[in-house]
Amino acid sequence: xxxxxxxxxxxxxxxxxxxxxxxxxxxxxxxxxxxxxxxxxxxxxxxxxxxxxxxxxxxxxxxxxxxxxxxxxxxxxxxxxxxxxxxxxxxxxxxxxxxxxxxxxxxxxxxxxxxxxxxxxxxxxxxxxxxxxxxxxxxxxxxxxxxxxxxxxxxxxxxxxxxxxxxxxxxxxxxxxxxxxxxxxxxxxxxxxxxxxxxxxxxxxxxxxxxxxxxxxxxxxxxxxxxxxxxxxxxxxxxxxxxxxxxxxxxxxxxxxxxxxxxxxxxxxxxxxxxxxxxxxxxxxxxxxxxxxxxxxxxxxxxxxxxxxxxxxxxxxxxxxxxxxxxxxxxxxxx
Length: 335
Fold this sequence. Notes:
This protein is an alpha/beta fold. The protein has one domain (about 10-20, about 60-330): Metal-dependent hydrolases (TIM Barrel, Alpha-Beta Barrel). The protein is built from 14 helices and 13 strands. It has a 5-stranded parallel beta sheet. A 3-stranded parallel beta sheet has the order 1-5-6. Strand 2 (about 35-40) and strand 3 (about 40-45) form a beta hairpin.
């Protein structure tokens, strides 16, 4: 690939855990549902549900993040807080405090980033009224052009009517809604082999998409921009099954006259499939204009060389440019 084939690379799926939030967590472990623990010189976040993950420098240190971006050929990163800190199972007041700290801290990192960092807000989604209020505050204060939410809200599906006001506000503000699995604790029958993440996360994403497609939610919100991470989980590769079910099972048609395939083309996805052939298949289904480059950095399940992955798809130069940064530039530059 020629060096100038991808003049702009924007990572829309990368995480931060700002220092102001870590300081608050030390003071309020019980309410926030996690503690910080030193393990052989590396700081870990240990959550009430049992799982733990390291706090890599790239989560908190802007200079470390920028150096890492340079190594990977990424010009711009859109930060979103680590999903283990969504706080959906916490008291709504504590969750609102967590969201505000994360939104303020992410904005501080963006300010330090010299124009190379952007960000997405988070919100206490278990309390839709608080969620709308924090979303509006963060957008007004910091100009966020996106918001990160879970693929479900502690078991409540995104299509639940209680959340409709929140999504309507996202549509009105023309925000990109990054939908990410809410990873908190080991799932039944996935206790071994790290399957809660390897299998559970893409399953949660696929289930979330299927629910949204069949619920009629997108009929009411035709301009809502939902961006599903991990390449849409398993759903894009089982669309034929969903399409067939819509034809033969009346349960699937009770809330929407639109086929799931038609509604599916309203969604957006990131590139994080860990497989160029799978990514090429996804692009063939929805078009390059619906796919954004995403890595999941700095977690260990990230795509460490997203440009190489995109190159290996053998998509056209124009399609790769669009996915690598063009789509993100168009959205985040929009007023």
